[in-house]
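Field reference: sequence -> structure
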Amino acid sequence: MENLNANYSLNNEINQILFFIVDKNLYAQTENLEDNALARIQKCIQITKNEYSHAISLQAECVPDAKRLIAQTQKKLDGLKSLSTIAQAT
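Structure field:
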């Protein structure tokens, strides 16, 4: 029972950190995975990679905000990958 509580607590802690890495829309979009933090992180990574690809295409079209979007998504990906490493290690 204690191990179950520890896993539940760790899952909640990871979800709290995830909330600060991703925007609230992405957090809500993956809410169905809140009981499986690693799967939720992986889904966020997948969605963020798609956002990154979109930002790259905007840069190719010379959209003024493209560099900002690329930087934001890269920062988000870095945070998600770090959180994924922590979640896998536990």
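Note: Residues 32 and 58 are 30 Å apart (CA to CA).
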